[in-house]
What does this fold into?
Amino acid sequence: MIFFIFAMWPIALMLHNRNLDIIKYILPTILLLISFLMYKKDKKYYFLPTFLIPFIDPKLAILPFLITLLGKNKSIFILISLIPILIFIKPFWGQTIFIKDYEKTQEIIRNTYLYPNVLTARTYQNKVKIVTDKFNSNFFALIDPNNYFFAFHPREVYTNNQNLNKFPFITIILFIIAFFNLEKLKNKKFILITLVASILSLSILTNYDRNDFILWVPISLLILEGYRKFFETIPKKYIFISKTLIVGLSLWELFRVFLTR
Amino acid sequence: MKRILIYTFLILSILLAILTRFYKLGEVPKGLYLDEAGQGYSAYAILATGKDEFGMPYPFVFRSFTDFKTPIYIYLITPLIPIFGLNPFTIRFPSFLFSILTIPVLFYLVKILLPKDKRADILAVILTLLISISPWHTLFGRTNFECNVALFFFLSGLLTFYLGLKKPIFLILTSILFAIAIPAYHSQRIITPLTLIYLFVRFRKVLLDKNHKLFFIIGIIFGSIISIPTLLVSFTPGFLARANGLNIFSGNRYLSYGFLPNLNSLISFIFNNKILLVTRKFLAMYFSYLSPRYMFWLGDYGPRSSFPELATFFVWQFPFYIYGLYKLIKDKTLGELRKIIIFMLLISPIPGAMTSDPYSTIRALPLVIPQNIIIALGIYSIFEKIKGKLFKCGFLLILIFLFIFSVGKLYSSIIVLNEYYRANEWNYGWKEVVKETSKLDKNLPIIIDGQRTGPAYIEILFFKEYDPVKYQSENKEISNSQYYTNMVPNEHKKIDNIETRPINWELDLPIHQYLIGDSLAISDQQIKIHNLKLIKDILYPNGSIAFRIVETNSF
It folds into this structure.
């Protein structure tokens, strides 16, 4: 039954992209899933499969480093996780927000002439702003619930984004329940580490679209936890109707994904 | 915290709010938007004749451009015109005044909602400081928007209600304030009744006990009497025009978000189901108001309900918001404050979510209060968590720096960038047009093409301070009996030798007259081809052409 909730994003991704490209987006997620299964079995080095992610897509070179760092793992693993960054430094750097942006620089220079003095101009119009603006734009898009449950509606991202339907909109309730019960979550450590590490590593990219599929794992886990919590809390007589509503609406949205193609 | 220090900070907040809202009030934003001019001239006409520009004595909602404007703001402008004159400053002054008055109201509201709690004073102080530099609240405190005035009456109603629980006489004042809030702005027609229901359900035992009952009933009577004028017109097409035109429920299914075209009828019936599509749309809109992306990054998409490079909150407030939200959910000792924040957080997005405009900060203005309280709670809680005097001092210094930086950011966005990039959105140039027309030959007709700027006649009336009696007699649009029901506006207006209508080159060229329009209406090529004499180009602050005045058949 839960399949209908979580199948939407992978199906939408497959329908909107070429087969060869999909592998690049799905394999890192599979590695993260393996990592989760290891975590569930209390394996100490559950994070090791993520070390392979940069070899599939160098854009995500920083992800294993962030996962090991946030997981407070031994220094040796943190050092090892830095190796992919060093190997792929060139292709990785070229796809980050830190590369020079000629147009934005010109805009900043133009704006500086509007200020009455150099101090205010330099304070509010400077080159650091180009990077921070891009980071903020990505970061806030990646933490936007409307991104995951309403395909970015009402403010879709019109450049370089497929605005895919990721999860059925009804499951936003389960997501919120999980969010407000973060402390009591079963897999709290894994969810938080992968969520924060993925969001940060995607926020520094010029275009995070499709690579953000890596977030499918932590967000699905959050929804799952919310689902569990929800059905633990509500009276028994409402369980059937609630499940019917969630499955019914998830199916409705899932079929719409096929029709939208 | 010492009492004197608390009140010093309150005064400081008020001074800071005056600084951010009063500096160049009336001059910035440059220009005067059509709605502002419309409200200003209606107030001017009421002052001069007791009737609006359509000849209707003291309307309950103002016909204006058949968009039927709420009355409170217009009646607030009226007594100011003899003092300050008819100008943008006067039109924006009530907004400024009520945004300042909101600060002490909020201060006392927090204090009364957290009685006998040592946190109340500090939270109230942080909140007032945050509101004084809030981009969202500042925007509506500098420009003519009724929502700001409505928010003041709503919050005052809330404050007096909680005071009324202790001193029942305040309940009469509560009903008066809430009754004013409802007609003050469209979204309050939803927010205030929901709040009244909530307050009644929550405090029904207190309200119906022997001490409160009499005042409660008197309050209902007073409130009802004040609401009679609104109720009298509440089912007319004019009153409902706004709600019908904007709400997502009455819209065409084929234009709904997520509608899939080219499906056969059965599949379309299932997958384009209107109830499901509208529910999804409503929820998408609703959650956008609570999303950090909209709050801290995107802001309102409307060029007049936002400033460049500024969202509704500052980015640095984001971590405090998240932590404050966490504290709000977990900390049950916050008592009534916690309940009212959650209630306001849940109901404030409803009016905005019911319309098709994404993240409309005008309609959801009451949301600025709970979200700022949450940020204040976050700041306070983090400060409390920090151990050691040195670290606490460091945290305070960082906060002071962020406040100063934020005030500078307001200056950068409101005064510098907005003027350069958005003068056209604020209908800049009409004042200059009117000034220039007074220099032209009075015997020649003037045609003003305002196709892209909207009903230009109102700007002419406003800046000319045109005699309302003369206008009422020369431009009869409808009879008083049709004022609230006839929805067809008269597009052609005549003001002395000025006529506002689209230029018709074929008919207008042979006549010796002046033509006024933007650079699309009168391009360089048209000047050359039609042998027009360029009298004046009126430029936006960024140097592009706002309006050009030409003379036909002059050679």
Notes: Chain B has a mean pLDDT of 93. Chain B touches chain A at residues 257-258, 260, 263, 267, 270-271, 276, 280-281, 283-285, 287-288, 290-294, 296-298, 301, 309, 315, 329, 358-359, 405, 408-409, 411-412, 416-417, 420 (CB under 8 Å). The first strand of chain B starts at residue 446 and ends at 448. The CA atoms of residues 348 and 367 of chain B lie 5 Å apart.
